[in-house]
TrEMBL record, chains A, B:
<dbReference type="GO" id="GO:0006526">
    <property type="term" value="P:L-arginine biosynthetic process"/>
</dbReference>
<dbReference type="GO" id="GO:0006592">
    <property type="term" value="P:ornithine biosynthetic process"/>
</dbReference>
<protein>
    <recommendedName>
        <fullName>Arginine biosynthesis bifunctional protein ArgJ</fullName>
        <ecNumber>2.3.1.35</ecNumber>
        <ecNumber>2.3.1.1</ecNumber>
    </recommendedName>
</protein>
<dbReference type="InterPro" id="IPR016117">
    <property type="entry name" value="ArgJ-like_dom_sf"/>
</dbReference>
<comment type="pathway">
    <text>Amino-acid biosynthesis; L-arginine biosynthesis; L-ornithine and N-acetyl-L-glutamate from L-glutamate and N(2)-acetyl-L-ornithine (cyclic): step 1/1.</text>
</comment>
<keyword id="KW-0808">Transferase</keyword>
<dbReference type="GO" id="GO:0004042">
    <property type="term" value="F:L-glutamate N-acetyltransferase activity"/>
</dbReference>
<keyword id="KW-0963">Cytoplasm</keyword>
<keyword id="KW-0012">Acyltransferase</keyword>
<dbReference type="GO" id="GO:0004358">
    <property type="term" value="F:L-glutamate N-acetyltransferase activity, acting on acetyl-L-ornithine as donor"/>
</dbReference>
<feature type="site" description="Cleavage; by autolysis">
    <location>
        <begin position="195"/>
        <end position="196"/>
    </location>
</feature>
<feature type="active site" description="Nucleophile">
    <location>
        <position position="196"/>
    </location>
</feature>
<feature type="binding site">
    <location>
        <position position="406"/>
    </location>
    <ligand>
        <name>substrate</name>
    </ligand>
</feature>
<comment type="function">
    <text>Catalyzes two activities which are involved in the cyclic version of arginine biosynthesis: the synthesis of N-acetylglutamate from glutamate and acetyl-CoA as the acetyl donor, and of ornithine by transacetylation between N(2)-acetylornithine and glutamate.</text>
</comment>
<dbReference type="Pfam" id="PF01960">
    <property type="entry name" value="ArgJ"/>
</dbReference>
<feature type="binding site">
    <location>
        <position position="283"/>
    </location>
    <ligand>
        <name>substrate</name>
    </ligand>
</feature>
<feature type="binding site">
    <location>
        <position position="159"/>
    </location>
    <ligand>
        <name>substrate</name>
    </ligand>
</feature>
Amino acid sequence: MAAHPVSPLAPKSYPDLPPIAGVRFATAEAGIKYKNRTDVLLMAFDEGTVAAGVLTRSATSSAAVELCRENLPGGVARGLVVNSGNSNAFTGQKGRESVRYITRVAAQALGCAPSEVFIAQTGVIGELIDASKFDGKLDEAATRLVDAPWIEPARAIMTTDTFPKLSGAVLEIDGVEVKINGIAKGSGMIAPDMATMLSFVVTDMPIAAPVLQALLSQHVQTTFNAITVDSDTSTSDTLLAFATGKAPVDAINSLDDPRAEIFGAALADVLFELAILTVRDGEGATKQVSIHVEGATTDASAFRIAKAIADSPLVKTAIAGEDANWGRVVMAVGKAGEPADRDKLSIRFGDLVVARNGERAQGYDEAATSAYMKGEELEVTVELGLGSGQATVYTCDLTHGYITINGDYRS
Amino acid sequence: MAAHPVSPLAPKSYPDLPPIAGVRFATAEAGIKYKNRTDVLLMAFDEGTVAAGVLTRSATSSAAVELCRENLPGGVARGLVVNSGNSNAFTGQKGRESVRYITRVAAQALGCAPSEVFIAQTGVIGELIDASKFDGKLDEAATRLVDAPWIEPARAIMTTDTFPKLSGAVLEIDGVEVKINGIAKGSGMIAPDMATMLSFVVTDMPIAAPVLQALLSQHVQTTFNAITVDSDTSTSDTLLAFATGKAPVDAINSLDDPRAEIFGAALADVLFELAILTVRDGEGATKQVSIHVEGATTDASAFRIAKAIADSPLVKTAIAGEDANWGRVVMAVGKAGEPADRDKLSIRFGDLVVARNGERAQGYDEAATSAYMKGEELEVTVELGLGSGQATVYTCDLTHGYITINGDYRS
């Protein structure tokens, strides 16, 4: 399926997510760009399903993103159609018409209103999608709707991803089992401004759309919004959450309901796992890296510094080379444009203190640090010594693989 | 000299810059990091030489930058000492002491006050320089001071540069020949916040220090501040200009002197050529790229959008792959956080219109565009259609060479 070697950070196995009452799906091969693989996902939601979403803030967002933005205030969902291979972004009026056409075809296949259908598209930018490829495909897919296995939709939405990304949580609320299933795709153009390229989460929890939206907006900050592969923000970033409400439990209708926090925590776990999987399938990635910044003047300042480190090509190439080049971390702190005092700065790689108070740490152990850098999961901690602001950003290294994948993507 | 293959964008020959009255120099091998090459430059200025400079705004700037910041207000220079191989940045109190030690050794060798000596250091961050390596070296160098050839100082300051960078201008002021010679080094960690890693410009023009400073600060904006190799801003960025005043012509003592503009234009030419040479020796570069943004709401907004495009790894890898992937340019415009209207956006590669009014241009010629991408110097123009703001940023592509150089720099 993947044109590139599978990421060395791929999980050894995938979770077998359980069916969720109220949602069924089918995938299809529409030949939009890829051959001999599924590239279309159709999801059908039972009546009563509510929707929430977080969309890219890109000033050049895609037609599909625009349509989601239009439909989200309705808060109601009956269908979702997703295709990989063409993002249909920057395709003007014709792009908008093609998106409307596809959602009409989907609505017809599912027997619902077009305004109840959400759409997400991913792939090359600037090429008008051939909407006629959906003719018949969605009708036919609608005859094959099933509630498992979830790996099929996860596969259908992949582009340069080298493995499907799934995460699920089962929690107990009022003694009733409630499920949350999520899928996502990466794996380049990843610096979400509030969502990764595409991710879809479905739960059977009865929950009001505004509450679901609030929880989603809250937890995206420390999950999808805290990852970066290459600092490039997509035109198509879309995170949608759907709640079918089929679990036999009272609905959460307010954030003040104490169950909102419990449900939110489980939702955050799913989002976090999907976000980390996205980083671990970052184009060319061989290392997963967590950048912790502590002691900043504010959390927002800590986040911007962590992002500057995580986005620095020099930091990322050093990590790829298993080089404990903490001087480049110093550089990235310096360029972030945030308050920092060089002479209060300390840096740890894992538990190893490499720099303290503005210079190489006493007892710095090059051999131990080099050994640490050979690991697959690395932690870099920067202590600014200015205040109590903190943040964590998750990223991967920058390797020859990234250049190979992106120097020849369209052809 | 260079550990990496010479950039394919290296000039075929180097200018033979003329001697400038009032400045002499010598280079030496101090073995700071490199073997069998010069790594120290000592410049001696005659009495009456004034200095101006622009230094990094990094919050973690080096000890050498701090010392220049201290000495610049004096406006007087008698000496400059530069070393490659170790930037002595983030080395704490001991780093500051080493810088003071080296400038004292230089002052003694030149017979001047330490406050009249400027220093610049470049190379690895976080390793304390062994200041004793300068003992005797500078004394000995001071016995060999010459006024040519200028390629020697240009070579001594190189780090990962694959070619020396020189530029000169000879202009006539009041019927008198006035000279400006400049040298620079790159070639990674290049996203100057007001200067590239290191650049030194010397003129024999009599000019007051504040005027020289004003002209330097003005012209750095469209030259060194308009280039980026990898978005990473150095801790050591230093641009210094020295005016020996030896040309037999009345001094420029005010910006209102009409000759300030004439001299400034020649200075800008020298800075621009050095900046472009720095881009052309960007680590791993195989293409020189100019990003023009027009029709923005303001010049500053145009600059930020041009910078976002020039720093985008996806744009840079597409260019490396000779792929006319203008969709990634759209993406970068979208992520810049500046006013942009997708449906007014037009993009040209060279003279070829690839996108107009938010979609692929009518008559887009894939074959012609692909042929254009094979060129060594590329121009990307983005027309936003919002106002009259414009800016140009100069960059290079992102290739396997960059990864190779930076994945294994310290070892």
